Amino acid sequence: MSDGMSDEAFDVALEQIKARRKERSDGSTASYYELPNNASELQDLISAKNMNAQIGEIFRECYRYGQASHSDEIRGIKKILFYAKAELERLQKL
Questions:
Q1: What is the pTM (predicted TM-score) of this model?
Q2: Which residue range is the domain that position 82 belongs to?
Q3: What's the structural domain count of the chain?
């Protein structure tokens, strides 16, 4: 793989993601909303959820939406859309 991840590691990560998607909530709470004990910043959450680059960028932009001096709301939404489209294309190739 071009990002340095082996095919085997990619397959394991993909299975972990699929397993997380299967968790159901009764509407009150679910384990996927719990924060890791050692999380103190966004990168900790991105790592704990094993987010890829596209999802990590979307997550970061959503969190800082409208707050970063270098990125107004329109630029933020465009960035979210750019990375969301890239992730959609990646998933459609699987």
A1: 0.68
A2: 61-94
A3: 1
